[in-house]
Amino acid sequence: MSRSNIAKHYSRILSQWPKDLIRPEVQFAKVIQARAANATKIHEGQETAELKNVNALYSLLDNRYSKKYPVPKGLLRPTSSPTYYDDLLVQLNEVPTQSRWASLMARLKGLTMAVIQQQCKNQYKISSKWHHEAVDYN
Q1: Which helix (H) or strand (E) holds 4?
Q2: Alpha helices in 17-138 (DSSP H)
Q3: Which of 13, 40, 59, 108 is disulfide-compatible with 64, CB 3.0–4.6 A?
Q4: CA 138 from centre of chain
Q5: Which Pfam families does the UniProt entry name for this protein (predicted)?
């Protein structure tokens, strides 16, 4: 396949690639755009590797692997929290429309939870260490 065809494939992929609404400052489409711009400059020996890259991008666009290997329903509905992933999707869909204040508060809440979890882990380490020291095995 010619280098111009590879560039056309990259352009087609770029036109179909979804925008990342959660992190608009980091777009994978920029990487694809750079590959499309450099596709005409690749060496003849690299064409096969570029075609593999194009094929991989098409497989991601088509959800080829999620169709081939579907996720079991039980995995998406854990017994401890059956609505966890549904709630997560709702939260992710709300992120692009959040105000800066709401975004900051959510981030602080996440940091607070991370600190609490770390403190719980540290407390468990201390208490289990104390327990092992306090027990006389003789």
Answers
A1: helix 3-16
A2: 28-38, 47-61, 64-68, 73-76, 84-94, 100-134
A3: 59
A4: 52
A5: UQCC2_CBP6
pTM above threshold 0.85: no
Q: Which residues of 99-129 are buried (b: 16+ CB within 10 A; e: fewer)?
A: eeeeeeeeeeeeeeeeeeeeeeeeeeeeeee
Cα gap 120→91, rounded to integer Å: 26
Between CA 62 and CA 35 the distance in angstroms is 20
Measured from the Cβ of residue 49, the count of other Cβ atoms closer than 10 Å reads 11
The span from the CA of 80 to the CA of 59, in Å, is: 33
With beta carbons less than 8 A apart as the criterion, state whether 8 and 32 touch. no
**How would you write the pLDDT of the chain (138 residues) with one tens digit per residue?**
678 888 899 999 999 999 887 777 888 999 999 988 888 888 888 888 899 999 999 999 999 999 999 989 888 898 888 888 888 888 788 777 777 777 777 777 766 666 666 767 766 665 555 555 555 554
